[in-house]
Amino acid sequence: MNNLDSAQHSPASSEALSGTVIGLDIGGTKTRGVRFQNGAPVSDESAGSSNVQNVSREQAAANLAELFGKIGGGEIDEVYAGAGGIDTEEDAQALADLIAPHAPGAHITVVHDSRLLLAAGGASAGVAVIAGTGSAAWGKNDAGEEARAGGWGYLLGDEGSGYWLGREAVRHSLRRMNQGLEPDALSRALLDSCGVEEPGKLIAMFHSPDTGRRFWAQQARLVVEAADAGDGISKAMVEQAGRDLADLARQAIRQLGMDGPVILGSGLGMNVPLLQEAFKAKLAEDGIVDVRILQQDPVFGVPRLVAEQRRS
Questions:
Q1: CA end-to-end span of the chain, whole Å?
Q2: Which residues of 20-52 are buried (b: 16+ CB within 10 A; e: fewer)?
């Protein structure tokens, strides 16, 4: 399905960029690709994840083949891909090698997906915070110095992410069980979503190979819905997520010696007002007030990044 009719993109992002550029935003659940012709998006398609931290190398290759089959091959000048878990040159090269057969002769750049977010927010310098399935902050100052915070993955971090909220909902339900309390509204919603009758069954389900971080990240919506309905514990979880994400931003800001802008994006960051308010309030305590909520999808930051790369 072509998503161009519903896609939001900034005219400024299409500034005189010649040639054919493929922008890829590779998440834990899907890979989104946009074909830009002279800076303007002409095709927008999606396939399954091609992030080898979430799927096998074989599945990643198959999903990329599907995506390029939809978006078209032919003459491609550049491919610019953002993906989670790109922490080393080896990580970037491994993904570039999977992309290369679909864009022969093209210049391929692979970066951490937070770079796309900053560019999509209209900034060349600042800090971008991802709040989706996982969480991370990345920034760059005017001198070109870079800084990262978080992005360690769900076993070591991902505070404030969808996975974190889903896990907290499970932990909350198990604590109530240990205290001899009946499931509350959040626990009941979680049990219904998981298809189990009582909280004790969540333990085996959580550790089962049949569920993964994406499944539990999807349960974050239950916490958000309960918070919006007035549940105090759920509200506290969402607000804590916002504060944890702000801490990631503050770490990157301090390393870079700047005070903004800070751009918050991805699924939770763009769509949960309660989390956004807590995020802004925490940063305001440090005098960081240039805080922006991303208004377009990160992949639309690719033209800006390619233009900057060509100028450098």
A1: 35
A2: bbbbbbbbbbebbbbbbeebebebbbbbbbbbb
- Distance, CA of 205 to CA of 203 (rounded, Å): 5
Q: What is the pTM of this model?
A: 0.83
pLDDT (0 to 100) of residue 15: 52
Look up residue 100 and give its two tokens.
């290369």
Question: What is the mean pLDDT, run by run of 10 residues, along the chain of 312 residues?
Answer: 45 62 87 92 92 84 93 88 84 91 92 88 91 90 91 88 96 96 96 96 94 91 97 97 97 93 93 97 96 92 89 79
Q: What single letter denotes the amino acid at residue 161? A: S
Q: Are the C-beta atoms of residues 2 and 33 closer than 8 Å to each other?
A: no
The whole-number pLDDT of residue 177 equals 96
**24 — alpha (psi -120 to 50), left (phi > 0) or beta?**
beta
In sequence order, what E strands does 86-243 have?
Answer: 107-112, 126-131, 135-140, 146-150
Phi-psi region of 5 (alpha: psi -120 to 50; beta: other; left: phi over 0): alpha
Q: Which residues pair with 135 in a beta bridge?
A: 131
* Gap between the Cα atoms of 128 and 151, Å rounded: 12
In 3-state terms, what secondary structure has residue 121?
coil
271 contact partners, CB below 8 Å, separation of at least 6: none
